[in-house]
Design a protein that fits this description.
There is one protein chain. The protein is mainly alpha-helical. The protein has two domains: about 1-60; about 70-115, no CATH class. The protein contains two helices and four strands. The chain has helices at about 1-55, 70-80; strands spanning about 95-100, 100, 110, 110-115. The strands form two sheets. The chain has a two-stranded antiparallel ribbon with strand order 1-4. Strand 2 and strand 3 (about 110) form a beta hairpin. It is rod-shaped, with a radius of gyration of 36 Å.
Length: about 120
């Protein structure tokens, strides 16, 4: 009789522990699902923000590359002033540094120095 009571108590204790563990597992799963849902919503918001940014701030047709006209303006800066000593390069030397640029056909031209015209 005494042994039987101990077994019953042990079974009840084990059942209680199992229920407690199941509840903890279910709570953990609920939290994980909630986090996944929040991540999904944030990702959707980011995607929507990206699409609205693309439509509102459409990039230039050449994908942000500078045109040769813009490059020539930059090279004109080299003609008028020397960065290192603040003097005009038109009176000293005969070379102009040309920055690298992209042609219309997509080829890249490396930076080079050319003779002043």
């Amino acid at each position: 009789m005494k042994l039987e009571n101990q077994r019953v108590k042990e079974r009840l204790r084990l059942q209680g522990e199992r229920l407690k563990l199941e509840n903890q597992r279910e709570e953990r799963l609920r939290r994980e699902r909630k986090l996944q849902e929040e991540k999904r919503k944030q990702e959707q918001q980011r995607q929507q923000q990206k699409t609205t940014d693309v439509w509102n701030n459409s990039p230039p047709s050449n994908s942000g590359r500078k045109t040769w006209q813009e490059k020539s303006v930059q090279t004109d800066r080299y003609k008028t002033s020397n960065f290192w000593n603040g003097t005009s390069s038109s009176s000293s030397g005969g070379k102009i540094r040309v920055q690298g640029y992209h042609r219309k056909d997509g080829t890249y031209v490396k930076p080079y120095c050319r003779k002043k015209s």
